[in-house]
Amino acid sequence: MDELSPLTLPSGTVLGTWQLEDRVGYGAYGAVYRAHRMGQISPQPVALKLALYSNDPRFEREAELLARVHHPNVPRLLAQGSWRGGRWNASYPYLVMDWVEGRRLYRWAQQHPLTSRQMLRILAQVARALEATHAARGLHRDVKGDNILVGPHGQAFLMDFGCGTWAGASLLTREVLAPGTRPYRSPQALRFHEKHVRSANAHYGATPADDVYALGVTAYHLCTGTYPPPTLTRDDERDTLAVRVPPPSQRVPLAPVLESLILRMLSDNPQDRGSAAELAMAMEQAATSPGDGLDIPMNPPSPVAPTVGANSSVSLSRHGGLIPLPVLPVAVGLLVLCSQHLNVRARWPHTSDSQDGGTGGVADAAVETPSLSGEPLEPKPHGLSLDMPKEPLPGQRRPPCPRPQIGLQGGCWFELRATPPCGEGAYAWKDACYSPVPAPQRPSTSDKP
Ligand SMILES: Nc1ncnc2c1ncn2[C@@H]1O[C@H](COP(=O)(O)OP(=O)(O)OP(=O)(O)O)[C@@H](O)[C@H]1O
């Protein structure tokens, strides 16, 4: 019988005092199960997030941050523990949180045509959740539509603190940029990255203003269906003037007050954005005012089709046969080098649909190496040994898999010249190691496609 893995625990499995019901999704670092406490007469559902990587330190960090933030728009941390199992009988940490009944923000918005007033109400709740996070001297660092759930009565919840940190927490990453999702990066973060991309010891120090900027991107995407353009591109590197953000009203009818708040959050200068608390108050006031155009429905435009980066993975497979492990970093490095001569905008995810790109390298391995498909595919924690999942990874190519790719467990893989334990970014299956092939088109990395 196949060993269980954190992704494949069956309904009824007991972890500590928690009994799993079903898996509701998974991200780059964790599988989320609906569960309940054992022995309760009328059990309340909880969300149990189980690490995909053994001894993953990000879980401790997420628990610590969640425990510090107390706010009705943030799920409470109820417990934490670890599950022992998998092929190497390793220890996988888990967190138990309040169950949030809701839909991801962009998808919710597709099903609930929005007015500016409704949008202000949603944004204000997220801003309040951010205010509480910042008051706890924490940072979320991955504010985006996919990390906001909206309940049936329009309650918004800020989720997934797995990329977060707080003042005084130790660095978990050696990358220039901490975790995050590329289109939501502030201009300061992008410029810092451009400047220090080759430095060994440079780390961008995110601030609450980065979270506010990401909320601005979320709002912009929510009403226009597109991301604002990145501020700094390779082409304008010598001229670091900010690219002007096209006002959302060029695309959708929205209230002037909402537009000015969105553009304020997207200000190039962090001081001009305002704090989460100030913005929340302004949004709440605007949402209750008679206001101009507040009740006109917005109809986001249809998605824009991707134009670049679709089949870059082909070049990796041209030499045929097995891919020797040392070749992969070289090949990826070459692609990175090449991509650095492209306009950054050209490799921006064209995610005009209802989902974000996954968190880049999500939680820790920062994100700034573009994946072959233009999306971060692979988490890169250190010293891991991963079994091949029974289903394709988010963003992984599905069969038919052109040679020399191999179709296994519903996904396309490159076989590596290595045997388990496979090491960073590789997966073991039947005594061989494999690397996932990115999907040729923009995938969803945050949800089961
Ligand atoms: N407390 C919760 N209550 C209900 N559903 C939850 C809860 N926490 C997470 N989920 C759901 O579980 C799924 C996986 O969430 P998770 O945060 O692990 O990854 P993700 O956000 O999909 O991906 P990534 O972290 O890679 O961006 C998502 O559909 C999310 O909405």
Major β-sheet annotation: 6 strands, antiparallel
Low-confidence sequence ranges: 233-242, 302-353, 361-385, 441-449
Which ligands appear in the coordinates?
A: adenosine-5'-triphosphate
Helix content: 10-25%
Beta-strand content bin = 15-25%
Could you describe the 3D structure shown?
There is one protein chain. By secondary structure, the chain is of the alpha+beta class. The protein is 25% helix and 18% strand. It has ten helices and 18 strands. It has helices at residues 57-68, 105-111, 116-135, 187-196, 208-224, 256-265, 270-273, 276-288, 314-317, 327-340, and strands at residues 14-15, 18-26, 30-37, 45-51, 77-85, 90-98, 103-104, 114-115, 138-139, 148-150, 156-158, 165-166, 297-298, 386-387, 406-408, 411-416, 427-429, 432-436. The protein has a six-stranded antiparallel beta sheet, with helices on one face. A five-stranded mixed beta sheet has the order 14-17-18-16-15, with no helix packed on it. The protein has a three-stranded antiparallel beta sheet with strand order 7-10-11. β15 (406-408) and β16 (411-416) form a beta hairpin. It starts with 13 loop residues before the first strand and ends in a 13-residue tail after the last strand. The protein binds adenosine-5'-triphosphate. Residues 24-28, 30, 32, 47, 49, 75, 97-100, 146-147, 149, 159-160, 162, 358-359, 362, 445-447 line the site of adenosine-5'-triphosphate.
